[in-house]
Write a structure and sequence with these properties.
- By secondary structure, this protein is an all-beta fold.
- The chain has a single domain (3-262), classed as Neuraminidase.
- The protein contains 1 helix and 30 strands.
- The protein has one helix at 6-9; strands at 3-5, 13-16, 19-22, 29-36, 39-48, 51-59, 65-67, 70-71, 89-92, 98-103, 113-117, 129-130, 142-146, 152-159, 169-176, 187-190, 202-206, 212-217, 227-232, 240-245, 258-262, 265-272, 275-281, 292-293, 302-308, 314-320, 328-335, 341-351, 358-361, 367-370.
- The strands form 8 sheets. A 4-stranded mixed beta sheet has the order 2-3-30-29, with no helix packed on it. Strands 4-5-6-8 form a 4-stranded antiparallel beta sheet, with no helix packed on it.
- The protein is globular, with a radius of gyration of 19 Å.
- The two termini are 24 Å apart.
- The relative contact order is 0.13.
């Protein structure tokens, strides 16, 4: 595949102690990244916020150069960026195959959850498909996960068919056992009646042992907008869950979560009361370590991401000052393997409207923040 240079993509870079920042290729927004087998896989959004397209690039030199973009959605203008948390998600599964899912844009009330995968040759994405058969009612967005056994999971939250209201929203999952070639009809991933925050995001992850994890925000009795962590050790057949972060607020906060692998377990990050937190998930469980809060006084911290290097050091990054139709900045803090902060707080301005941030670790132990 042809390579494009950073200059050709218009990428600006900046270096800080242990951290480099780069801009999303092609002036895109909403980067999502997976590093797998020495390749950095990235998707991003281009177009009008309510109707645009998703593109995929990869880098074999950890962000110095990226490949020529491939359009993910074969249906033009079938993706959205409005609200920051309704964008596309990426996973890499068996044999390095790339999988992508995203919220559709129409029709109202029956918005599809699109899914597409990279073809066998790695040269183009196969035609996108809607994996929802009955559990319609997308709002805040979904996510997906893939493992090295050929399982692919697409998650979203939506009301129980025939019902309305956040209290009746549940987490649903459509599963493929053949690398995304076919999907089973969706089923409830978790049936505890705690609802789901309608305009809040959801994040999924599968570890190297085939365990599956989901983080989402509840809407129990309207005001219990807690972060719940779900886990499955039987390849998505059943899930257990735990309330890991309480927030009493009677409003939809449009929050997001993230996961990353680490030598100590699975890193998870989330937002609560305008502050960003991360913790370590005990593999195969819904148990998480004592949360670590981002340092300093929170100013509407959102969209947190985490990354870990081989030494067990953690990069924790989040946005500051972002709101509806408003961009902001990115800040980050490095931590040692014992979750003790190292060095000064890093920051950069210029996170675009409707965008989020992403991060990954390089083989030399340094990190890259993408915004």
């Amino acid at each position: 595949m042809m390579k494009a240079t950073l200059l050709a993509f218009g990428l600006a870079t900046a270096a800080f102690a242990g951290v480099t920042t780069i801009r999303v290729p092609d002036a895109g927004i909403q980067p999502q990244i997976v590093e797998h087998g020495g390749i950095v896989h990235m998707i991003y959004f281009k177009g009008e916020d309510g109707k645009g397209d998703v593109f995929y690039v990869k880098s074999r030199d950890y962000g110095q150069t990226f490949s020529k973009p491939l359009k993910v959605n074969q249906t033009p203008n079938s993706a959205m960026a409005t609200g920051n948390i309704r964008g596309a998600h990426i996973a890499v599964g068996r044999n390095g195959r790339v999988h992508v899912s995203w919220n559709g844009v129409e029709p109202a009330g029956h918005i599809p959850m699109h899914y597409a995968r990279l073809n066998d040759a790695g040269t183009a994405f196969e035609p996108d498909r809607n994996v929802i058969s009955r559990a319609y009612g997308l709002d805040g967005g979904g996510s997906l996960a893939a493992d090295n056994l050929g399982n692919v999971y697409v998650f979203w939250h939506a009301p129980i068919p025939g019902q309305k209201g956040e209290e009746n929203r549940r987490v649903w999952v459509a599963k493929s056992t053949n690398d995304g070639k076919d999907f089973e009809p969706e089923h409830l991933a978790f049936d505890k009646p705690i609802g789901a925050c309608g305009c809040c995001g959801l994040k999924a992850y599968a570890d190297d042992n085939g365990n599956v994890y989901v983080m989402f925000r509840s809407a129990d009795q309207v005001v219990n907008r807690d972060i719940w962590l779900l886990s499955s050790t039987d390849h998505g057949k059943t899930f257990t869950g735990a309330d890991v972060s309480h927030w009493n607020i009677g409003a939809c906060v449009m929050s997001a979560e993230s996961f990353a692998s680490a030598p100590s377990g699975i890193l998870a990050a989330w937002e609560t009361e305008k502050q960003a937190y991360f913790g370590v998930v005990q593999p195969g469980t819904s148990k998480i370590s004592t949360p670590v809060a981002a340092p300093g006084q929170p100013i509407n911290r959102k969209y947190p991401v985490v990354a870990s290097n081989a030494k067990g050091e953690t990069l924790f990054a989040w946005t500051e000052g972002m709101a509806w139709k408003k961009g902001g900045g990115v800040q980050w803090q490095l931590y040692d393997k014992n979750a003790r902060p190292q060095g000064a707080l890093g920051k950069a301005d210029g996170v675009p409207v409707w965008s989020v941030i992403a991060a990954f670790a390089k083989p030399d132990g340094n990190f890259v923040v993408v915004y």
